[in-house]
Design a protein that fits this description.
With 270 residues, this protein is of the alpha+beta class. It has seven helices and nine strands; from the N terminus they run βββββββββααααααα.
Length: 270
């Protein structure tokens, strides 16, 4: 074998061992490998006559795959062990970060995914459509439930969008509302005060419209009037808190790390 790759990731060939390291959380139980061999050679699987064809044959790489390459004339054979593995965490989510545990838990439970290249992007902002999609996962909404939705009330959410059914579900449940022009703006980044309003509705919490002076965030005056009750309701519920400096930054975008935290907090109390 001259070259070997799985999911577009090239493996290293050392003697009789081929090793492929995929990004964190990659699945490889039913994958097609791409490889090249010496001219007209044939490749078989696990000492059987089952032929393995590049870019066609599916294999379970969760265990060592044994391949045998036989030359065209049948006089020469070479055996290889193919080992495919993935790291135990995202490359940009390390144990020393405050969000390590919640990100890893959220990823393990299938609430939030990585970027496909082994990274997570903890400080990146989250779009409104993606947030609702993750909310549906955290709430345990089944695919069967989602499949009952064939339309959404928003003019800018088409049903062929990957988040459309989750948005339709959330709107039907009263968890989200759009804008006056009947749009939802799914590709717009979601703010922290918008998230507070959604979670308060999801959890059917009582609004806290008159927080005590001691409970107020340092930037209380920057919170939109409509959002005050939601933000302090979530604070009392322990779902969404402010920053170490005592502020809440209501109009700043929610980051992916903060999303993981709020989703896990929600799952722990719902």
């Amino acid at each position: 074998i001259k070259s070997f790759s799985v999911k577009g990731v090239a493996g290293t060939i050392s003697g009789d061992t081929i090793k492929v390291t995929l990004p964190y959380a990659a699945k490889f139980d039913n994958e097609i490998a791409k490889f090249t061999t010496s001219e007209m050679a044939t490749v078989t699987f696990d000492d059987t006559s089952a032929e393995v064809i590049s870019e066609k044959t599916r294999l379970d790489f969760t265990k060592t795959v044994n391949l045998t390459v036989k030359s065209e004339d049948g006089k020469s054979t070479t055996k290889y062990k193919v080992i495919v593995e993935a790291p135990l965490s995202f490359s940009d989510v390390t144990p020393d970060k405050w969000y390590y545990n919640v990100v890893m838990q959220a990823a393990k439970e299938g609430i939030i995914e990585g970027n496909g290249d082994g990274t997570f992007g903890p400080e990146k902002s989250v779009k409104r459509g993606d947030f609702v999609l993750m909310l549906a996962r955290a709430a345990g909404v089944t695919q069967a439930e989602l499949d009952t939705y064939t339309s959404t009330p928003f003019i800018d959410v088409k049903m062929d969008s990957y988040y459309a059914k989750q948005i339709a579900w959330a709107a039907d449940q009263g968890h989200i509302s759009g804008y006056k022009d009947a749009s939802f703006k799914p590709d717009q980044y979601i703010t922290r005060q918008e998230v507070a309003s959604i979670f308060t509705r999801v959890m059917d919490l009582d609004l806290v419209t008159n927080p005590s002076e001691s409970a107020k965030y340092k930037d209380h005056s920057s919170i939109a009037g409509w959002a005050v009750g939601y933000i302090y309701a979530l604070k009392d519920a322990g779902i969404m808190n402010g920053h170490k400096d005592g502020t809440f930054t209501p109009t700043s975008d929610l980051t992916r790390a903060q999303t993981a935290q709020t989703m896990i907090n929600y799952k722990n109390v719902k």
